[in-house]
Structure of UTP--glucose-1-phosphate uridylyltransferase:
Amino acid sequence: MAEFQEKLRLQHENSMHTELEKLLTTAKPSEAEISRKDFEGFKQLFHHFLQEKGPSVDWAKIQRPPEGSIQPYEKIKLKGLPADVASSLNKLAVVKLNGGLGTSMGCKGPKSLISVRNENTFLDLTVQQIEHLNKSYNADVPLVLMNSFNTDEDTKKILQKYSHHRVKIHTFNQSRYPRINKESLLPVATNMGLTGENEEAWYPPGHGDIYASFFNSGLLDKLIAEGKEYIFVSNIDNLGATVDLHILNHLMSQPSDKRCEFVMEVTDKTRADVKGGTLTQYDGKLRLLEIAQVPKAHVDEFKSVTKFKIFNTNNLWISLPAIKRLHEKNAMDMEIIVNPKTLDGGLNVIQLETAVGAAMKSFDNALGINVPRSRFLPVKTTSDLLLVMSNLYSMNAGSLTMSPKREFPTTPHVKLGSSFTKVQDFLKRIESIPDMLELDHLTVSGDVTFGKQVTLKGTVIIIANHGDRIDIPAGAMLENKIVSGNLRILDH
């Protein structure tokens, strides 16, 4: 049986290699070299995929992280800052993951170009933050954007507007991998084109691809040559992911033989974060455990807030020389995420992905730092957008901080219904962002609009039944109210 399976594996692998070679013959001369490098990475991933059986973790081996492997942020902050912050900053580059589109929020083009606050986009805010750092400390922190083939062209067009800002901007492209037919395990692409029938044939393979594509672009070596030692990596839609000088100082002040090569910022789980990856001890190494790797029987245990108290924010600090070393030795060990998709025509495909944090176990002296929740402020939906556009936050030099006027530092729980999913609908339905300083919970469902200068306090639930419409009048103040039907306001 094992012999037969091995034979089948080899057959699949050989067929895949043949198809990839065929595809390469259709590449434009200018792209052939890049595509070949991409395919080398894909072949390795496909090889691992064929070897794997079932979930990639043995649940019995999973242990809580040992004492000291996750440090509280407060402890790191106690060290204070050195007199010369600039020399540490000059050894840092900021990398933003910029491969995603705004489709889930009903927007065309890169997600980073959606306006989130006073007409500023995610990218504007990022540039403002880094420029402020460079000016304040007379430093030279560059911004590096990891684009995908979906976002590269539009992003590059927009970058011209920052040419007079005090921040050097570099870009490199994530790999482009072929989606594979779930049945035949062969690429669905017929040539290297991105249009027509091949439009859905390609995908950017998750942010774990950062190591290979950063290395292949030549930018990794360029930054090392410029004296950069660490990158701070985060998702461009996490508005809380600003450069933290205390974490940077912690990294820079380690003795050279005990240099921490990888820091993962984690934060305490709430009910909203039960699906987030968590840190565990596994085979003597600190390791990221994602929900996709958990055997079905243990998913509830994984989601429990009692056993796994923290989750990964995907704010990571990684040593550049370590990335170079591990990549050159081909020692970057990341679990494969198998992501099933159905294409528009109904074809079932799979895409093989990896996560940037999964490589943590390959680095020396890896550390988790339990940071305040304020460093995790992702904008994934218009519900999140409502929060960051509101008076709950004040903005200074591209950074958002919770308003001191809010008594409780927790973020309200906001759930907007499907009528608000698209940004343009959201903006049409809300004439001006309500005052939410004293809000705890907001649920809105159905055909609802908000007039100007509405105030929401406590728990507010607004549900327009099918066929009804609710217009919250200008200047209304709703405190602990349930509004249902076609505008009947009840005390909650």
Notes: The chain has a mean pLDDT of 91. The CA atoms of residues 439 and 457 lie 4 Å apart. The two ends are 65 Å apart (CA to CA). The chain has two domains: 44-375, 382-484.
